[in-house]
Amino acid sequence: MLKLTDISAGYGAFQALWGINLEVKTGEAVAVVGPNGAGKTTLLRVISGQIAPISGQIIFEERNLKDLAPHQFVEEGIAHCPENRRLFPKLTVEENLKMGAFIPSARNDYANRLIWVYQLFPQMLERRHQLAGTLSGGEQQMVAIGRALMSKPKLLLLDEPSAGLAPVIVMHVFDLVRRIREEGFTVLIVEQNIQQVLELVDRAYLLEVGTVKLDGTAEELKNNEFLRQAYMGL
Amino acid sequence: MKRYLLIAAAVSILALLPLFLVPVYYLHLLILVLIWSFIGTSWSLMGKFGIVSLGHGAFLGIGVYATTVLWNFQGLTPWIGIPIGIALALLLALLIGYPAFRFRVVGHYFALITLALGEVVRLSIIAARNITGGSLGMTPDRVQPPTDVSWYALQFSDKRYFYVIALLCWLGALLIWRWVNRSMTRPALEAISEDEVAAASMGIHVTSHKLRITLLSAGMTALGGILLGLYNQYLNPSSLSGISISLEIVFLSIVGGMYSMLGPTIGAIITIVFRESLRTYFGVSLAGMSESIYGLLLIVSIIFMPRGIYGAVETWLKREPPPSTSAGADPDPDPSS
To answer: Which of B194, B195, B204 is nearest residue A71 as measured by Cβ atoms?
Structure first.
């Protein structure tokens, strides 16, 4: 579904990614793990079109996305649930969800999708007229994921959904991600919470200072000696 | 239904007003209120989405000077001059807006750019004194042979013609406001004003949405300037461009309430009535007194009514008992307000 070949990217003179190769197949859940500053968020921004790569190719559903503008990536079917959630704090929960269905193809089907998201997250229905900024962290994460789902994407990008949440809430959010998988979405998730995210995904990539250090199935990585010592303290 | 009847009644009263013998001075005030309401509404279309321009005088000036220069030197009727003036204002807005929005110049920085823009246009008008009369201003030539009513030159000796024209423009601005509010542009711009990155990741074309509302606002403001020029039959660079007039537009919108459709209109009524009464009360006896009181009231109203007078009244009227915890079907807030 998604194939990155030799992607390099950065900000101005600073280069954050060096020749990344990555693949996500339809129906898969794939994690990108790694320490702070490894380039995980930059990678997601490249995939969602927010920054243009210096070199390399992004092929999504057999189409090269190289020359598309950021807003067109959503129309192609890539929804990005950004780091720190980035909700619209002064809009209500429902208005936030509505913004997720902004693209013309999603707009007509807005009412149905809203019902569907509410079925997925019944808590959102109770809070639908509350300002998003007044929700708790876990609830905000739910709205952010729901908002990304409103465009009915083919590929959902999640950037550290567990960041800044209490351990019990993190488990809850991961449960949500699991349910989204079961709904048949393809998910690419960036996480620092390596141990837990490996329980969730099929495959994972370990990023270190802008390059892919390791990749393999979740089972392989769980048993990888280097990863266990360096990142899990086992 | 009842609402539409009410609106129809209000509009017809306003339309029929000049048939009755309204003293000329009050008709003059009404026309000024309508034109300034129109300009304030145009500014608020941008302002309410956090795109604060402190240089709308630029669009005000460029439109009316272009129209008048074309009339005086080329004999070109304002019917052609007005579209040209508006087109020039749009071009100017595009030249400033596109790079600013493309490179994410937001907030204070954008305000500063526009502040400079207003001054640049004022100084340019003064510099081109051969055709604009410099800081002394200019007068549109009288249509030849002189007539009382010239639709060709849009010169009327009877104020009632201008009253109707200004009324139509003002109503048009309110309709445009309503149209923007009901289109997908409103949620898109609201999202952009809260978080441009998040809005972009929703599939919203940030630059194009901001640019479109800016062009709309600039074009309407240019038309407002042209109305002022045609009505006063006198153009002056400092009363049509530059900082003071640009800020005047901002103030009247903020005082009235830029988030509501009728806010800028209330602002125009209050500022004009207030300034006129202070001016007639103090006259020349205490120079600067009316301006000082005006400024003081401005400060007080911004501190205590940040959503403007109309906004404050609206909030007060919409007070609700504390919401119950059950998630019932509660009506959506009125989108047109």
So the answer is: B204
Are A89 and B194 within 8 A, CB to CB?
yes
Which residues of chain B are within 8 Å of residue A107 when distances are taken between CB atoms?
184
* Chain B residues with a Cβ under 8 Å from any Cβ in chain A: 184, 187-188, 190-191, 194-195, 197-206, 327, 330
My answer on whether omega of the bond before B145 falls inside 30° of 0, hence cis, is: yes
- Number of H helices and number of E strands within chain A? 11, 10
CA–CA min distance B274, chain A (Å) = 35
Q: Which residue of A has its CA nearest to B209?
A: A71
If residue A14 lies in a helix (H) or strand (E), which one and from where to where? strand A14-24
Query: Which domains, ranges and CATH numbers included, belong to chain A?
Result: 28-36+77-232 (3.40.50.300)
Q: Report the predicted TM-score, pTM, of the whole model to 2 decimal places.
A: 0.82
Rounded distance, CA A85 to CA A96, Å?
A: 12
Whether A211 has a pLDDT exceeding 50, the answer reads: yes
B-chain residues near A127 (CB < 8 A): 327
Note the pLDDT tens digit of each residue in B183-227. 888 889 998 998 888 888 888 899 999 999 999 999 999 999 999
- Interchain proximity B190–A88, CB inside 8 Å: yes
Query: Residue A207 — φ and ψ, nearest 5°?
Result: -100, 135
* Interface mutation target, options A11, A46, A48, A88, chain B, most CBs of B under 10 Å: A88
Task: Give the integer Cα–Cα distance in Å for B297 and B290.
Answer: 11
- A58 in Cβ contact with A7 (< 8 Å): yes
Which chain A residues have a beta carbon less than 8 Å from that of B184?
102, 107
Residues A106, A152 contacting (CB under 8 angstroms): yes
**A71, B200 Cβ separation under 8 angstroms:** yes
- Interface predicted TM-score (ipTM) over 0.90: no
Whose tokens are 């604009």? That residue is: B132
Nearest CA to B93 among B225, B245, B218, B206?
B218
**CA-based angle A52:B50:B38, to the nearest 5?**
130
Residues of B in contact with A72 (CB under 8 A): 203
Please enumerate in sequence order all residues whose Cβ is within 8 A of that of A184, keeping only pairs 6 or more positions apart, or say none: A27
Q: Would an 8 Å CB–CB cutoff place A78 in contact with chain B?
A: no
Strands of the sheet with A14-24, listed across from one edge: A14-24, A2-11, A55-60, A63-64
Note the pLDDT tens digit of each residue in B263-314: 999 999 988 988 888 878 877 677 777 778 878 887 888 788 888 888 888 8
Residue of chain A whose Cα is closest to the Cα of B195:
A88
Distance CA(A74)–CA(A101), nearest Å, equals 10
Flag if B327 and A95 touch (Cβ within 8 Å): no
Give dist(CA B71, CA B59) in Å, integer.
Answer: 19
